[in-house]
Specification:
8 strands; single chain; two-stranded antiparallel ribbon; 333 residues
Length: 333
Amino acid sequence: MKARYPNVYPFSDRWSKPNPAGNLLNILAVSYGLQGAGWNFQHTSWDATAKKFVYTGATEQYKQMLQYLNKLVSEKLLDPESFTQADDQARQKLANSKSFVISANAQAVVNDYRPDLAKTNPKAKIVKIPLPIGPAGEVNPANRLENGVMISSKARDSKNFVAMMQFIDWLWYSDAGQEFAKWGVEGKTFVRDASGKPTLAPDVNVIGLHPNAPKHLQKDFGFYNGVFAYGGKPELVQGFFSPEEQEFQKVMNARTPVVVPPPHPLNDEEREQASLWETPLRDHVYQATLQFALGQRDFAQWDAYVTELKGKNMDSYLDLVNKAYERYQKDHR
């Protein structure tokens, strides 16, 4: 792309507020074997070889990830404004052929990029490609711990406690409840095809499936709530996917699921202490990430940066987390 259009940054990204390159870093982190970065920054990553948690922002993998980004920036393949620009700026660049690559999800392709391009370049085609493969190999970063339910201890004193638990069990864990939460009411928001599978009613839209429909499944009826978007059997989860999104999911599901780190629950006192350390540590990682990626700080200063993290209680934080892990292992043998 750069050779064909030398005056254009091929890649100009969005979703960088409030965290610089929030989405891009999160995608790349998994490719480098880390727990998360960017808008999903995780202070710790599990080192399966050493059997302990390490500080994500100080690892060699994190350094390599930033070196890769710096290479893209220095070779003018990645727009340096990607780290700070608003979404609308990134979309405008794509629509006006000032870039060719941008972060996406199924909704963004349908609701943002294709309508934008239709106005400026009707012949243009855009497709969603699988996530990049890095040193960690072919990994599927889809989180299997998307959401859950917490119930107040006061609930057990209610005369409706049993009924409430029965409702929650139905809504969250039964096929019928999950179908209701996602599709709504049969005959009103959805119908069934010849095989019995739910299909969106023709006068109802969601995620661009029926763009000219007068009603919206979420806005008008309150169904397809994001809390329930990823629960249930595969055919239920993928029921709203377009054929191209199903193909994308097929590629990603063939990859190895990301490893969930072992439990390491902190007690109340530890949690309070950890919270005091986390904010300055995170802020410093964000600041240094931007500096290293943009070439404002040389990688020869990496050790100095790690020392700065130590000065912000990185080692004490890791000691707290690893002791919690060891305690959990001891208590659950």
